[in-house]
Amino acid sequence: xxxxxxxxxxxxxxxxxxxxxxxxxxxxxxxxxxxxxxxxxxxxxxxxxxxxxxxxxxxxxxxxxxxxxxxxxxxxx
Length: 77
Known about the structure:
This protein has 4 helices and 2 strands; from the N terminus they run E-H-H-E-H-H.
């Protein structure tokens, strides 16, 4: 993982499967989708010279609180 000072932009794909699919997600009928749009945006920003961190909170199994804490630690602010 990069040092805090070397990250310009932090992108996060939130864990939203349960919100999107409701009760169906409890039966494992839904797939976890890769953060395609986030990856495309990150690639473009990197071509422009920015350093980017991309997190997929859904795959990591992070709660909203955990995601916020981990993102804040790398945030350039």
